[in-house]
Amino acid sequence: MKQFEVVDEAIDINRYHEYTIDEKQGAVCMFTGHVREWTKGTRTVHLEYEAYKPMAEKKLAQIGEEISERWPGVRTTIAHRVGKLEISDIAVVIVTSAPHRKDSYRANEYAIERIKEIVPIWKKEVWEDGEEWMGDQRQYHPSLEEK
After folding, report:
1. Alpha-carbon radius of gyration of the chain
2. 26 alpha carbon, distance to own chain's centre
3. Which side of the chain, N or C, has fewer Cβ within a 10 Å radius?
């Protein structure tokens, strides 16, 4: 396991959780992003993720560095899965630990927003009536408007 990685297999969240625990940390926050079936009335059949792994892992590490600068003492680990993911599969896990909970929460939320902004991971949504590669991870089915 690497601290920041892109993986092809199912994510074992326990490995990442254990990585962040040490005698200095009093709070651990874990976010897991899952493939959901329904998005605003549109049924997703499955998702497919692709990444340029060396660059994606470099950007994940950059996010970890940014978190360390903003919240000293926070330990971070992030894994994102690529390939075909079925409904309820874990696409991403972010674990942040800190001496106190507020820093752990804030760092964790910061990490998922930064992943969507800077990490070169592409998602293809496959619906019952078609499919589309998303330009970034904030887009949805073309019939939907983000509000």
Report:
1. 16
2. 23
3. C
